[in-house]
Amino acid sequence: MTTPFLTVIPGGAKPPSVKVMTTVDFKLEVVVLPVSDVDRARAFYEAVGFRLDADHVTDDTYRVVHMTPPGSPCSILFGVGVTTATPGSAQGLHLVVSDIVKAHEELLGRGVEMGGIFHDTSEIFHRCTDEMRVSGPDPQRRSYCSYAAFSDPDGNGWVLQEATS
User: Fold this and answer.
1) What does the pLDDT look like over 138-165, one tens digit per residue?
2) Whole-structure pTM over 0.70, yes or no?
3) Which CATH code, of 3.40.630.10, 3.90.550.10, 3.10.180.10, 3.40.5.10, is assigned to 91-165?
Protein backbone atom coordinates (compact mmCIF):
# COMPACT_ATOMS: atom_id res chain seq x y z
CA MET A 1 0.00 0.00 0.00
CA THR A 2 1.38 3.42 -0.96
CA THR A 3 1.26 6.20 1.59
CA PRO A 4 -0.67 8.99 -0.20
CA PHE A 5 1.61 11.87 0.70
CA LEU A 6 4.67 9.98 -0.59
CA THR A 7 3.19 9.27 -4.00
CA VAL A 8 5.02 11.08 -6.80
CA ILE A 9 3.03 11.76 -9.94
CA PRO A 10 4.82 13.12 -13.04
CA GLY A 11 3.66 16.60 -13.97
CA GLY A 12 2.36 17.30 -10.48
CA ALA A 13 -1.06 15.73 -11.06
CA LYS A 14 -2.78 14.21 -8.05
CA PRO A 15 -4.70 10.97 -8.27
CA PRO A 16 -8.30 11.31 -7.02
CA SER A 17 -7.64 9.07 -3.99
CA VAL A 18 -4.96 11.37 -2.55
CA LYS A 19 -6.07 13.82 0.10
CA VAL A 20 -3.92 16.89 0.58
CA MET A 21 -3.04 17.54 4.21
CA THR A 22 -3.64 21.18 5.06
CA THR A 23 -4.12 21.28 8.83
CA VAL A 24 -0.54 20.74 10.02
CA ASP A 25 2.70 22.34 8.81
CA PHE A 26 5.73 20.08 8.38
CA LYS A 27 8.72 22.40 8.75
CA LEU A 28 12.25 21.13 8.33
CA GLU A 29 14.03 22.24 11.50
CA VAL A 30 17.35 20.37 11.73
CA VAL A 31 19.59 18.31 9.45
CA VAL A 32 21.93 15.93 11.28
CA LEU A 33 25.42 15.76 9.78
CA PRO A 34 27.80 12.87 10.36
CA VAL A 35 31.26 14.17 11.23
CA SER A 36 34.43 12.53 12.55
CA ASP A 37 35.92 15.49 14.44
CA VAL A 38 33.40 17.74 16.19
CA ASP A 39 35.80 20.60 16.94
CA ARG A 40 37.07 20.65 13.35
CA ALA A 41 33.48 20.65 12.02
CA ARG A 42 32.49 23.45 14.39
CA ALA A 43 35.47 25.58 13.30
CA PHE A 44 34.63 24.94 9.64
CA TYR A 45 30.97 25.92 9.95
CA GLU A 46 31.90 28.99 11.97
CA ALA A 47 34.25 29.99 9.12
CA VAL A 48 31.41 29.45 6.63
CA GLY A 49 29.35 31.89 8.71
CA PHE A 50 26.96 29.61 10.56
CA ARG A 51 25.78 30.88 13.96
CA LEU A 52 26.59 28.69 16.95
CA ASP A 53 23.32 27.99 18.78
CA ALA A 54 24.52 25.36 21.24
CA ASP A 55 27.49 23.19 22.09
CA HIS A 56 26.37 20.82 24.81
CA VAL A 57 28.59 18.10 26.26
CA THR A 58 27.16 15.49 28.61
CA ASP A 59 30.18 13.18 28.71
CA ASP A 60 32.63 11.46 26.32
CA THR A 61 29.75 9.61 24.64
CA TYR A 62 27.42 12.54 23.94
CA ARG A 63 28.00 16.01 22.54
CA VAL A 64 25.60 18.09 20.47
CA VAL A 65 26.61 21.10 18.38
CA HIS A 66 23.74 23.04 16.84
CA MET A 67 24.47 25.72 14.20
CA THR A 68 22.34 27.81 11.84
CA PRO A 69 23.23 29.24 8.41
CA PRO A 70 22.73 33.01 8.07
CA GLY A 71 19.07 33.82 7.43
CA SER A 72 17.93 30.18 7.60
CA PRO A 73 15.05 28.78 9.64
CA CYS A 74 16.68 25.31 9.40
CA SER A 75 19.82 24.37 11.33
CA ILE A 76 22.45 21.66 11.30
CA LEU A 77 23.33 19.42 14.21
CA PHE A 78 26.41 17.26 14.65
CA GLY A 79 28.39 15.79 17.48
CA VAL A 80 29.17 12.58 19.31
CA GLY A 81 26.38 10.05 19.82
CA VAL A 82 23.89 11.85 17.56
CA THR A 83 24.00 9.66 14.42
CA THR A 84 25.28 6.31 13.23
CA ALA A 85 25.73 7.57 9.66
CA THR A 86 29.21 7.48 8.14
CA PRO A 87 31.07 10.81 8.36
CA GLY A 88 30.89 12.59 5.02
CA SER A 89 27.86 10.64 3.78
CA ALA A 90 25.46 13.62 3.68
CA GLN A 91 25.34 14.90 0.10
CA GLY A 92 23.29 17.42 -1.85
CA LEU A 93 22.57 19.74 1.06
CA HIS A 94 21.31 22.99 -0.46
CA LEU A 95 21.72 26.54 0.75
CA VAL A 96 19.62 29.04 -1.20
CA VAL A 97 21.30 32.40 -1.86
CA SER A 98 20.02 35.53 -3.57
CA ASP A 99 23.28 36.23 -5.43
CA ILE A 100 25.44 33.24 -6.38
CA VAL A 101 28.44 35.38 -7.36
CA LYS A 102 28.51 37.32 -4.08
CA ALA A 103 27.94 34.18 -2.01
CA HIS A 104 30.72 32.35 -3.87
CA GLU A 105 33.12 35.27 -3.35
CA GLU A 106 32.20 35.55 0.33
CA LEU A 107 32.91 31.88 1.02
CA LEU A 108 36.18 32.00 -0.90
CA GLY A 109 37.13 35.04 1.19
CA ARG A 110 36.40 33.03 4.34
CA GLY A 111 38.84 30.35 3.19
CA VAL A 112 36.27 27.79 2.05
CA GLU A 113 37.48 25.62 -0.84
CA MET A 114 34.84 26.07 -3.52
CA GLY A 115 34.20 24.65 -6.94
CA GLY A 116 33.36 27.19 -9.60
CA ILE A 117 29.90 28.57 -10.29
CA PHE A 118 27.96 26.47 -12.79
CA HIS A 119 24.59 25.93 -14.36
CA ASP A 120 22.98 22.81 -15.76
CA THR A 121 21.85 22.77 -19.39
CA SER A 122 18.99 20.36 -18.65
CA GLU A 123 17.19 23.31 -16.99
CA ILE A 124 15.52 20.94 -14.55
CA PHE A 125 17.86 20.45 -11.62
CA HIS A 126 21.61 20.04 -11.39
CA ARG A 127 22.99 16.54 -11.49
CA CYS A 128 25.44 15.09 -8.99
CA THR A 129 27.89 14.59 -11.86
CA ASP A 130 29.48 17.01 -14.31
CA GLU A 131 27.14 15.77 -17.03
CA MET A 132 25.32 18.72 -18.69
CA ARG A 133 27.17 21.16 -16.40
CA VAL A 134 28.39 24.45 -17.88
CA SER A 135 30.79 26.84 -16.17
CA GLY A 136 29.39 30.16 -14.99
CA PRO A 137 25.98 31.29 -13.74
CA ASP A 138 22.83 30.73 -15.76
CA PRO A 139 22.98 33.28 -18.63
CA GLN A 140 19.53 34.68 -17.74
CA ARG A 141 20.19 34.38 -13.97
CA ARG A 142 16.91 32.51 -13.54
CA SER A 143 16.01 31.27 -10.08
CA TYR A 144 17.14 27.75 -9.22
CA CYS A 145 19.48 27.52 -12.21
CA SER A 146 22.92 28.64 -10.89
CA TYR A 147 25.02 26.66 -8.43
CA ALA A 148 28.35 26.38 -6.62
CA ALA A 149 29.52 23.51 -4.43
CA PHE A 150 31.73 22.89 -1.43
CA SER A 151 32.31 20.16 1.14
CA ASP A 152 33.06 20.20 4.84
CA PRO A 153 36.28 18.56 6.10
CA ASP A 154 34.57 15.14 6.27
CA GLY A 155 33.18 15.40 2.73
CA ASN A 156 29.56 16.26 3.51
CA GLY A 157 28.54 17.97 0.27
CA TRP A 158 26.84 21.35 0.05
CA VAL A 159 25.40 23.20 -2.94
CA LEU A 160 24.68 26.91 -3.12
CA GLN A 161 21.63 27.50 -5.31
CA GLU A 162 20.65 30.96 -6.53
CA ALA A 163 16.99 31.91 -6.05
CA THR A 164 16.13 35.46 -7.03
CA SER A 165 12.34 35.18 -6.95
Assistant:
1) 999 888 889 999 999 999 999 999 998 8
2) yes
3) 3.10.180.10
